[in-house]
Each structure stands twice: as structure tokens, then as C-alpha cells.
Design goal:
single chain; about 525 residues; alpha/beta; seven-stranded parallel sheet; 11 helices
Length: about 525
């Protein structure tokens, strides 16, 4: 089999270079006014290329939302009101019907979907559900409020959940009720859950708290204002007490301009700080991605959403300005071995809406010969493996790959068919151990082999020239097979172009290879 560049593929790559110039112009242009946080994570480009959340319903599990705020009111495409449902679950304040008296939830929703002309967000056409679970002091005295609120959101059609909240008693092993519930929602209902990592980075116990320590969620750390190119000091970081890397990803979380619940007597917008506002920056991008997936027939399984978002993240510095690096790795004999795959403070890096578009829109490709950028939702059986042949890469190419799979959590209902406080959640299977390995000319050169995480990640620059392949291995597991999400991206150094990344974003490589997997 000839896997080297053909004359046809060369013509395709010339077309790609032209397409790359168009994307470069789009990337550099100011599409419209936006806050610096939205601009930094390429939110305006994501809004244009992926969508503005049309058709997506977001459950905001928080302190309530002032749905009369000018930036949060109105209708979505089709004429339906943006607010789909609301209810109060704070039993100590029974007179409240869901209104935000603290201001936290209104600001969170503003970060997700503000329609303000200046401080606009990404998911401006998404609907939302207001589940008030935090009291007038912005806290919950029992996780029953949060569980009931989440169940209400799910029962009213939420297909994306944002929880900018956490325990104060540092449950950091993914075993709290909220962590187990969040993992169940992700793995069994296939609904992505975004949570804030916590604001304990400057304390004696900086670890992410539950549910920010859950396995299957998007646990989000915060980057520092102005440049948003490093982790802010207050952002909680791992590893967790059981050795897993958290957060998963980062987003702007300091000096965030968002909706003020007291807008009637004060300014419409105030500045907010915390991972609580990094999480909704991520949620807004996810809503856009899910709209794009629905529109283009692509998988919106949380495994794929997480793999593509992490793999396209921008590598940023930690709180001390040290460069991104995996939490634990070693090199020897020409083999890079990563045993704790993400940076302990920033996770995979910072959300990048433009790169996410390029990664996700490339499409799904089955094992075998694959293009430079793509992803796959697949299954590995027994202790078998799946191979992806990336082809011949020139000297100094770059490579990234992210592998995700679920921790399995079951739900025991109290009989009413709705997730609520009497219900219980429990781990149902031993966590599978999947591994990710990279080969150069059939010789292994890099591996990500954590034995505690349910993700693997490799990020390598300055590759040697040669033929590359990527292998997913099931080392052990609790069942007969394991479903996984995989995203990969290689960039070939070509002066003056963005090379294959932009090409694949427009689907040209998919036609070039002719191996697109149907979904």
C-alpha cells in the first residue's frame, strides 16, 4: 500500500493553502465587539463557524437567573422564549420562584449567552433552564438542592449542563454524590456537564473540589485577566487525592464582564472573578459546537466533545509562568512516557474556539488510513487495539492526540423516574485502562499510559521525519469492551500557510482520502 503523498493529494494541499489564507484572515479579523475573555478564546470565530447555540438547551444549576435582564431576555430562532423553565430548590427560602438575589447565576448565564451589543457571548440563541439551588448567600447546605435542580433541568429537556458550584469540604476523589451524579449524566444520558474547578488555588488545599473532581465532566480552571495566557492564582489545581489530573481545561475567569442582577438600579454589567465564570465560557463554546454537530450530522457524544476540545486547546503557562507540560512524564531510549497526561494547573490548556472548529469539523474517520486532523468514536474489544495511520510527516511537524472514555456510574431511582434527592448513584464497573501510543516507522516513540485517569493526551513538537501511526490499546477493563473518543491533529511546517489544519477544517482532506466514517 502506497501511503506517501500522491499527485492528487499535492493538488489538494495547494487548495488547502488557499483555504488556510482565508481562515487566517478570519482568525485575525474583528468580527464584532466582544469582551476580552470571549475574544481571547476565539469566541467570535466560534460563533461564526460553529454557531450561536441554536437548538441547544442549557441547564444553569446556580443561584437563579434574572431573566428580565436585557441581555438575557427575548426569543430564540423560531420564536420561543430564551427561558424554557425555572424553579427554586432552596427549601430554606420557599418564597423564591427562581429569581437571583445574589447575582452569581445571572452573571454565569451572561457569560454563556449575553446578547449585549458590547459584552456579547457565544450562545446567544440557546435556550436555558434556571434551576435555583444556591441560597441568598450563594451556598447550598445540602446536596439535595443541587440534585433536585439537575433533575429538573434534565426533565425539562436540558442537553448541556453548567454547574459553577462545589462542595466546601474538599471531596476530591470523585466519590461525592454530585460527582457521581455528574458522571452518570455524562456516561449514561450522554449529556455534557461543565463544572468549575474551584477557587482554592491560594489555600493550603488547592485541589479541585466535587463535582469538579468528577471523571467524565469538563472541569474548568481559570486564566488571569488582561492577556489570559496563564493560570490565575486562585484557580484550584490537581492532581486530586486519588492522583488524577484536574482541571481538564481552562478558560478566562478573572475580570469577566457579565450581567448584573441588579441592573434596574445599577450598571447592566459588572466584573466577576472565579472559575465559576471560566466554566460558562467553556459552556458557551460547547453549545456552539453541539449546534454545529447537530446541523452537520456529527456526533455530540460527550466523549467526542471532550476529546476534540482538549486536543484543540491552546497550551498556556501556569500561575508561575512555567510552560505547559504533562504532570508526570519521562524520556529515555527515544521513548516519551507520559503517566499523568495533563498539566496540573491548566489541564490540556485554554479553550480555543477556532482550533476547535478546525478539529471538530474535520469529521470522523474509522481506524486505518486517516487524514492529518480528525476524530473517531469507536470501541475496543477485549485486550485488542485500534490503529490509525497518519502517513509520512516531514521533519519538525507537530502532533497532538487525546483519548477519552467513561467511568461507568449507575442510578438507583426512588420510583418516580426523575433524578432527585432520594436517589443514589454508584460506580458500576472497574475503570478501564486504555493507553495511547505513537509509532514512527513501526517503532514506538511516545505513549500516554496513566493508570488512574480516564483520558490520555500527547502533545509533541519537532517530530522526526517518517511514517507515523497511532494506536489505542485496551490494557484492562471491567467489561468486554470499551467505547472511546479519539481526536488527533498533525501540523506540517509549510512557510506562509496554516497547512493541513485549515485544509481539514474545510473537509478537503476527507474527500482526498475518501474514508469518512458515517455517523
Amino acid at each position: 500500500m502506497n501511503l506517501t503523498t500522491t499527485q492528487g493529494s499535492l493538488r489538494a494541499r495547494i487548495a488547502c493553502a488557499l483555504a488556510a489564507v482565508a481562515l487566517a484572515i478570519l482568525s485575525a479579523s474583528s468580527l464584532s465587539a466582544a469582551g476580552p475573555d470571549v475574544t481571547r478564546i476565539k469566541g467570535t470565530q466560534a460563533k461564526t463557524l460553529l454557531g450561536d447555540g441554536t437548538g441547544i438547551v442549557i441547564g444553569v444549576i446556580d443561584s437563579g437567573v434574572d431573566d428580565t435582564h436585557p441581555a438575557l431576555t427575548g426569543n430564540v430562532t423560531g420564536g420561543l422564549p430564551r427561558l424554557k423553565a425555572e424553579a427554586n430548590f432552596v427549601t430554606t427560602e420557599p418564597g423564591n420562584t427562581g429569581d437571583d438575589v445574589f447575582g452569581h447565576g445571572t452573571a454565569v448565564m451572561g457569560v454563556i449567552g449575553s446578547r449585549d451589543a458590547t459584552f456579547f457571548s457565544v450562545a446567544t440563541d440557546a435556550r436555558y433552564i434556571n434551576a435555583r439551588v444556591l441560597d441568598n448567600n450563594n451556598s447550598f447546605s445540602t446536596d439535595a438542592w443541587v440534585v433536585n435542580g439537575a433533575g429538573f433541568a434534565l426533565n425539562n429537556g436540558a442537553n448541556l449542563i453548567n454547574m459553577s458550584l462545589g462542595y466546601g469540604n474538599f471531596n476530591t476523589s470523585g466519590l461525592s454524590k454530585l460527582a457521581l451524579m455528574s458522571d452518570y449524566i455524562s456516561s449514561e444520558l450522554r449529556i455534557p456537564v461543565v463544572v468549575s474547578a474551584g477557587n482554592n488555588g491560594n489555600t493550603a488545599n488547592p485541589k479541585p473540589q466535587g463535582p469538579g473532581d468528577a471523571y467524565n465532566v469538563f472541569s474548568v480552571g481559570a486564566t488571569q485577566a488582561n492577556t489570559y495566557n496563564k493560570i490565575v492564582g486562585f484557580s484550584s489545581y490537581g492532581p486530586t487525592t486519588d492522583g488524577r489530573v484536574k482541571p481538564d481545561i481552562s478558560a478566562p475567569g478573572q475580570s469577566i464582564n457579565s450581567a448584573n442582577d441588579d441592573w434596574e438600579t445599577q450598571a447592566d454589567f459588572l466584573q466577576f472573578n472565579g472559575t465559576s465564570f471560566a466554566a460558562p465560557n467553556t459552556t458557551g463554546i460547547l453549545a456552539a459546537q453541539m449546534e454545529y454537530g447537530n446541523t452537520h450530522g456529527l456526533s455530540i457524544d460527550p466523549l467526542i466533545l471532550k476529546a476534540t476540545m482538549l486536543n484543540s486547546a491552546e497550551k498556556i503557562n501556569d500561575r508561575n509562568n512555567a510552560a505547559w507540560e504533562p504532570n508526570a512524564s519521562s524520556s529515555g531510549g527515544g521513548l516519551l512516557t507520559v503517566t499523568s497526561p495533563l498539566d496540573s494547573q491548566s489541564g490540556a490548556g485554554q479553550v480555543d474556539g477556532l482550533k476547535l472548529y478546525q478539529q471538530y469539523s474535520a469529521g470522523e474517520f474509522a481506524p486505518g488510513v486517516v487524514p492529518a486532523v480528525g476524530w473517531d468514536l469507536n470501541t475496543v474489544i477485549g485486550n485488542d487495539s485500534q490503529d490509525y495511520y497518519l502517513g509520512t510527516l516531514p521533519q519538525n511537524s507537530t502532533f497532538a492526540a487525546t483519548l477519552t472514555w467513561y467511568r461507568k456510574v449507575g442510578w438507583t431511582d426512588n420510583g418516580n423516574g426523575i433524578i432527585d434527592s432520594p436517589d443514589t448513584f454508584a460506580v458500576t464497573e472497574t475503570l478501564d485502562d486504555l493507553q495511547l501510543r505513537l509509532y514512527l516507522n513501526s517503532v514506538e516513540v511516545a505513549r500516554s499510559v496513566s493508570n488512574v485517569d480516564n483520558l490520555e493526551h500527547l502533545s509533541i513538537s519537532n517530530l522526526d521525519a517518517g511514517f507515523y501511526s497511532l494506536r489505542v490499546i485496551r490494557n484492562s477493563g471491567g467489561g468486554n469492551s470499551e467505547q472511546y473518543g479519539l481526536a488527533w491533529a498533525t501540523a506540517v511546517p509549510e512557510p506562509g500557510t496554516i497547512a493541513l489544519v485549515a485544509c481539514v477544517a474545510l473537509g478537503l482532506v476527507g474527500r482526498m482520502y475518501g474514508r469518512r466514517k458515517l455517523v
